[in-house]
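Subject: design request, 387 residues
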């Protein structure tokens, strides 16, 4: 329905397009960049980052009001996924190695449309929007960012930018994992039993609210000091992983229709035994070796190794009557349209652990790198207290 709405608005609002921003603006902007991969010391603030321009008619330029950081930003700072991201940026391999630098990180953005490409009709300059930025594109720790219009969505009217910037990347990830891979949605989620392993971080806190809004019974694992947070978000059962072997505690509960694993590691050895056998139940993990394989073995061999690994695991568990899947982030403006409606309807709320200023970006990376998150960490690029 929202997809149809996008098409209808595109048909009716084709007259809106900025003509002056590109021609009149300056050529540089402030941004936090890295010039090589490494630890936190590679972060560099500059006032002379190249200001993004529209290359394709379906692109928009967004003025960043707030940016959100995710664990993937920490990994990318160290070079994780560099081989795959290089292929996405340059599929014909025409550029030299290191052409991605200076690289701007930051996967969440909430801001304002400044310019639209010739084919963009669903948005107009001045629209308040949010987006989850694909990891192969320049990020949001800058004054402006350029995105494809199909990656952008109108921001929820009920949220300020610093609140909105906490949601897009984890929402797009949770939706991809739960809906696209896990097969659960608002039409079939009622009374389904869902287990979220690692429920107090960004993806976990969003996933709890999504599936609870669809009528599912939600069980969450987290530490004791996060129990109040996840229960406030809708968790029905909470298992404290610090109170003894978590698998033994979970084995006392009824089996599940869907497991979302944010932890990885040893969990695969016991988590699939918690699913309802021969009932279409699925285990979906966000902790996969795909990017590690491509970094280590190269793109072709890495993809082959990943294919062998996932194939063997799928067959192994299919014999037991359950489905094993890998989950991945997928950028999608229409998905964020759906989430925006849920936010404005009071079914989903932002979980912001801490807000930093734009000058404090190195401290933001340190905070996210420490782990044990209770929601999201956000950078306020423009003070939006007057909104």
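Subject: RE: design request

Done. Sequence follows.
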């Amino acid at each position: 329905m929202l997809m149809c709405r996008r098409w209808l608005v595109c048909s009716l609002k084709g007259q809106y397009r900025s003509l002056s921003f590109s021609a009149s603006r300056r050529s540089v902007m402030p941004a936090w960049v890295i010039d090589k991969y490494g630890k936190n010391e590679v972060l560099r603030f500059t006032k002379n980052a190249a200001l993004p321009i529209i290359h394709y008619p379906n692109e928009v330029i967004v003025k960043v009001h707030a940016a959100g950081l995710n664990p993937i930003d920490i990994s990318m700072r160290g070079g994780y996924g560099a081989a795959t991201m290089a292929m996405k940026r340059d599929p014909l391999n025409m550029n030299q190695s290191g052409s991605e630098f200076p690289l701007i990180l930051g996967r969440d953005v909430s801001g304002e449309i400044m310019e639209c490409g010739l084919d963009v009709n669903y948005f107009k300059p001045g629209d308040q929007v949010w987006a989850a930025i694909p990891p192969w594109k320049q990020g949001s720790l800058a004054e402006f960012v350029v995105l494809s219009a199909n990656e952008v969505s109108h921001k929820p009217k009920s949220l300020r930018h610093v609140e909105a910037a906490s949601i897009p990347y984890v929402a797009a990830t949770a939706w991809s994992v739960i809906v696209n891979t896990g097969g659960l949605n608002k039409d079939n989620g009622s009374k389904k039993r869902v287990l979220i392993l690692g429920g107090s971080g960004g993806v976990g806190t969003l996933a709890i609210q999504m599936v609870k809004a669809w009528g599912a019974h939600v069980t969450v694992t987290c530490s004791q000091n996060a129990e109040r947070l996840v229960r406030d978000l809708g968790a029905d059962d909470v298992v404290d992983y610090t109170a003894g072997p978590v698998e033994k505690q979970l084995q006392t509960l009824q089996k599940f229709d869907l497991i979302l694993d944010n932890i990885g590691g040893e969990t695969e050895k016991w988590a699939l035994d918690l699913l309802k056998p021969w009932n279409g139940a699925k285990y979906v993990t966000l902790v996969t070796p795909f990017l590690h394989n491509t970094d280590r073995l190269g793109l072709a061999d890495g993809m082959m190794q990943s294919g062998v690994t996932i194939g063997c695991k799928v067959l192994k568990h299919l014999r037991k009557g359950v489905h094993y899947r890998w989950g991945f982030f997928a950028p999608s403006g229409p998905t964020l349209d759906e989430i925006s409606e849920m936010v404005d309807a009071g079914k989903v709320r932002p979980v912001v652990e801490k807000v930093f200023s734009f000058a404090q970006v190195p401290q933001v990376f340190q905070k996210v790198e420490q782990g044990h998150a209770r929601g999201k960490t956000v950078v306020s690029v423009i003070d939006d207290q007057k909104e």
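The CA atoms of residues 116 and 264 lie 41 Å apart.
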